[in-house]
Design goal:
Rossmann fold; disordered C terminus; single chain
Length: 329
Amino acid sequence: MTTRPRLLVLRALGLGDLLAGVPALRALRRGFPEYEVVLAAPAELAPVAQATGAVDRLLPASAPGRAVPRALAWTGPPPDVAVDLHGNGPPSHRLLQRLHPRRLFAFAHPDTPEIEGPPWYAEEHERDRWCRLLTAYGVHADAADLRLPRPPGPSPAPGAVVLHPGAGAPSRQWPVERYATVARALRERGHRVVVTGGAGEAGLVARLGQRAGLTGADLFGGTLSLPRLSALVADADAVLSGDTGIAHLAVAHGTASVTLFGPVPPSRWGPPPHPRHQALWHPGPDGDPHADHPDPALLRVQPAEALDALTRVHQTDPGPRALARQPAP
């Protein structure tokens, strides 16, 4: 019995991180067609990993925040190739080195001088960064290779405008009152508005719903599985959110989106240049993306700007979703 060679990719981060890494994952799939591609990532991201068409198996791995897992449950012989898509090291480098891979692709770091990778550029866009890493190792990558197929199953609210007030940290959370202002204006224009939230954000979703006059049927405070959330986004009229995973999901499904940026500029995490994706940002000094209060740059974005941006994405992307608006209940 012949055993396939194995390629291990470390990206034990969140939904947005995984979606930003899709071009790199697909490049590895093309570059190593005979290998089993194993992705070390949080278990709940398995549906998205499968949808990329680039991953054969997900190895559950996670840590609080953006930390590096303490260990990986790798079994059998060492990986033939290990790829660090998690960070610039050294903790992520050393985690993979402990598995003794035959080859290791990673960025250079002074604390791991034995790795002769390319330099890390802090200002580089996340999608471009990982594609450049692979290119340095002879694997061609296309940073625009982002799209995912529509997930199976129906949307719980086809044609709705999706508002997602949560984010990984308060510094990237636009105030609920401003989302509510946008929601009320959209409903007056005849749109159905729904609100989504992640784990632990049911209270945030409920507050927004109360301020906007939405019913329980329009509130999804952590109640949607990832496939159902993907279906909702794929069939949405538009998505309004901060710089968080659902914004990347909208890009992956080609859904019109408006993303609000604050501590980190869109030049590092924003959508690709396309009229259907609008990034709102008031230039200024970098903030702390993990702070416990909304970033001042984010607070400079006003509801009128978000509404104008939503109007622009409708005008530039007048496809079936823009025609599928439902009257407010």
